[in-house]
Amino acid sequence: MSKIIKILGTGCLKCQTMTGVVKDVVSENNIDANIEKVEDIMEIMKYNVMSTPALVIDDVITIKGRIPSKTEVLELLK
To answer: What do you get for the CA distance between the two ends of the chain, in Å?
Structure first.
């Protein structure tokens, strides 16, 4: 079953970097995942996240306000 990954952020450099890290991990490890970028501030507010970027995996907020390492993302997706 494919994971639903959402990256919450308004498109800032940190958000773009997090998107890159997540996409790399998914492709390098052949993970079945659907990656969505959520840039709409109203949509982000629904998650009650004040600091972006935030990483949401299957509707659970796993990381917020920082860029994770590839290792950390891989652990969260396992």
So the answer is: 12
